[in-house]
Amino acid sequence: MKVVKSLTLALVAIVASCLTQSASAQDNTLLGAGSSFVYPLFSKIFAEYGKTHDVKVNYQSIGSGGGILQLTNKTVDFGGSDAPLNADQAKKIGVPVLHIPMASGAVVITYNIPGVTTALNLTGKDLADIYLGKITSWNSAEIAATNKGIKLPDLPIVVVHRSEGSGTSYIFTDFLTKVNPDWASKVGKAGAVNWPAGLGGKGSEGVAGLVKNTPGAIGYVELIYALENKMVFANIQNKSGKFITPSLATTTQASNVDLPANAEVSLTNTDNPKGYPISSFTWALIYKEQKYNDRTAARAKMVLDLLWYNIHDGQKNCEPLNYAPLSKSAVKVAENILKSATYGGKAIL
After folding, report:
1. Which of 216, 225, 232, 278 is the most buried (most CB within 10 A)?
2. How many independent structural domains does the chain possess?
3. What is the domain-level CATH number for residue 195?
């Protein structure tokens, strides 16, 4: 009986120890959700951060819309978004939210045309007309006009778009809205729109998968996803009339702008003649006032320290993953935004 009692007590002690360790680990685990656009970069930065800090980051790549919803419901420590909050989103949150720029990247137009392995030249107007369902074949006169010398097949175009609210969709539709009046009046820009045509894929992975497996398909994904999946992608005409190949260099050119104090700015359809026109900053979103839901000051400091690392030491991970790092002036803006965060009305940093 004494042996059984001793074993029982030992088992209770082991379970209690495991629960304590689990709770302790959870206390050191920050929760983030949102942008799939920045997911490859965040994964690398957070892994590096964990090597030198007793902090783990659980970031769920669920799309910017999902990240904003999680932030609205106060179920995460930070959100990731490729678009600033719109008026409706800000109203639902009800309190000030800070937008901290993390890096900038490119959304590329990828396609699956059997027999065509070279980069096509596409204008913004034609791209919007494809997504409006007005241009329906790859050998259309509009596409042929900007791709002389390339034999385009008489193949139906299968439009692919994101199925969920997405910052990548916002960047894409923001560009289309600027370059095609018909798109602007009928569809507009948003993370989730009423797509006039096409198939929906969940996440960048879903869009990439549909394009790779569907002859005639066209879709939009982040540059890193296209490169990792060895997908061809188009040169897109910018405001200067030049067809620009998406790359680290051309994204950097597009992001070479003076950020406003709140860091909320659109880079699409850049004025820079060397810039790729479907580029965007990506932001981490946090509450300006960090005292909520029994949140401790220590946890708030963990969040701010992580994001401070992102805009400094973490920037070295941008270029290897084809994201454009923040400029010195952009880092200064990001620093000032982080320094404005408070806990109980007092500055955290």
Report:
1. 278
2. 2
3. 3.40.190.10
Diameter of the chain by CA atoms?
90
* DSSP at 327: P
CB atoms within 10 A of CB 327: 17
pTM score, whole prediction: 0.88
Question: What mean pLDDT value characterizes the chain?
Answer: 91
Q: How many CA atoms lie within 13 A of 324 on its CB side?
A: 28
Q: What are the tens digits of pLDDT across the range 303-325? A: 999 999 999 999 999 999 999 99
Structure tokens, 232 = 């061809």
| Residue 36 contacts residue 105 (beta carbons within 8 Å) | no
Give the pLDDT confidence of 48-81 residue by residue, as tens digits. Answer: 999 999 999 999 999 899 999 999 999 999 999 9
Residues 6+ apart with CB under 8 A from 66: 33, 34, 60, 164, 165
Cα distance between residue 252 and residue 14, in whole Å: 54
82 shares its domain with 182 = no
Triad 172, 42, 223: Cα angle to 5°:
35
Q: Is 241 helix (H, G, I), strand (E, B) or coil?
A: coil
Question: Could you say which of 279, 306, 336 is where a domain stops?
Answer: 279
Handedness of CA 248, 253, 256, 257 (dihedral sign): negative
Tokens of 220: 């939009």
Range of the domain at 305: 2-105+281-347
Rounded CA separation 155/286 (Å): 46
